[in-house]
Amino acid sequence: MSTMSRSRTSLSPATSERSTLPMGASAEPDSPEFKPLEPTREELLTHFFERFKFYTSLCLGTSAILAVFAFLFLIPFVVEPAIQTILAEFAPEAGICAVSEHIYAETLTNCTWASCREGCTTTHTKCHKIRVNLARRPFEENAPVPNEWDATDLKFLINPEGCGYPPRVNCSEFASDYAGKKAPKIFPCYYSMTRPELVVARYSWDTTIRGLILALVLPTTVFVFSLSVLAYWHCHCCDRACNRRVHAESFASKEDKLLCELDEDPSDDVF
Description:
With 271 residues, the chain is α/β, with parallel strands linked by helices.
């Protein structure tokens, strides 16, 4: 009974070694008759590729999920504001604006709109409401104040969304720069061609297009690339289709067969 248990121990895969003894023979792992077989290069490469495939698939799956959540997050914060900005069709050159009214209000009822909001998804009980007069002609440094305005008492926003997050948007600094004691009498502003009541302080066509392209292209590229690699590795239908194509390419086409038959035809030989 002890001989059988010793034989099973020597042949068990737990020792990670294989014996070259004949079937039915037994030997201790430390004996000179026991010769372990080293794994071949093909087995090592296969094992390495399987581990690489597992960890890479895990990373690609995580990247695909994060790309979906990133795209859903960017829709209300980047994609939608960029589309609204493009549809507003702001004038390429800044016009001339001057503050006509500045109100610092409190409570929700008095802050139904605001020139600047720190946070685009929250409501504020304190806000700055700035209105401006607009002259639709190019702004020039040290130009005199216009005597006539094309529009008066328009709502003045910090950007097309009217909101943002620090440090890019600071509503206290914005109100001080445009409606404070040291604010200039006239300053450049951008007006909309399709929405006459919309006037903003900051606008850039290049920044808007760049943000829209990045928000659409980057998550989509990561998602499509990750899903394509995962489908190629783990989708059996794709694997069968690729193998079928390779198998079909191993046979000669009808045109090649016809050329071979013409070459072998003895009637074409010249005697």
